[in-house]
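We modelled the chain as a single entity of 402 amino acids. Its sequence is:
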Amino acid sequence: MGRIGAGRPPGWQRRGASVAAMRTLARRVLPRPVFDFADGGAEDERTLRRNEAAFAELALLPRPLRGAAHCDLSLDLFGARLSLPVIVGPTGLAGLFWPDGEGCAARAAAAAGTAFCLSHGSVCTLEALAATGAAPRWMQVFIYRDRGFTRELAQRAAAAGYQALVLTIDNQLLGNRERDLRNGFAIPPRLGPREIAAMALRPTWLLRMRREAPRITFGNYARPGENADVQTLAQRMASLLDPSMNWADVEALRRDWQGPLLIKGILHPEEAQEAVARGVDGIIVSNHGGRQLDGAVSTLAALPFVVAAVSGKAPVLMDGGVRRGADVVKALALGAKACLIARPMLWGLSVAGEAGVAHVLDIYRREIERVMGLCGLAALSGIGPDLLAADEGYARAALPRP
């Protein structure tokens, strides 16, 4: 794997000074179908854009004279001490963006002192990722038509030492991701001459993947000894999705899995209440990054209602549109314990592998520290709703009259 670092864009760290800049670099180094697979959303992509735009609707009300010479970004979550409130969320086929993509991301997260969640649709198997020793590590699962396969994945995760299980509930049907359809990047992939030509236009990526990458597949869906190709496994994965899943399935998984169990994909406060009542340990407010139901509410808009419904009985996390350290601080002010990132991780991975993911996490760390320092916040525990204003008029109204 010694040549994996080859082909990084010259001066990428300087040019990639923000998450948005890393996205631009990723767009330049990836074939169009691969970039759009990460970057795109469902249908008109309204929810995708709404996730990012929601953060701009909230303003900060700093109080610098509280004094914050040093900022502590650490937190306790499910028995682990994390060094920053940004977690690497599950992203399918990370190994398509850089050889050993999942391992690169997990190692970078561990070095940054935070958690990594492996996607059910990873190129590597969950056992291979566990062999890296990166921790804390979480595992994503679905409720499948074959309930035995759901149980099997949970048992494999337990045997491999995963610290938490993340049940994703908003992927029971495949979203209508029109960018992928235009690019032939469906499940299974249908790559014609135009799509293959687009990949050939990125020779550095193509050469790196041909030299260094294992065969692209869905590792967790292959049976022992099976040599199935990616199309066969993709069809198997799609056939297992089950829109009939229900609370009885959550309860069954709760019985099968002894560690922390999180549900990812909750937007409605009543569903959050029900999850906690049935023994779920954590809630991830998520709309799948706008990749499933276009027109769904932004996660930031849903967050405070879910937090209120849970009433402190379980930690609430969120993802979707988190592109700045200020976004993380705003989410924490609305009651989130931490934020998950997905696309930003893939952009960093695409540009520079493990070093690129580490760079993205460092961007968040530095930006969070700067925002906290400018707002007079020495620790995450000091971040609360009094830090926020809905707009400039609200900010003026919120301040005491002279």
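As a brief sanity check on the tokenised model: The chain has a mean pLDDT of 92. The longest strand covers residues 261-266.
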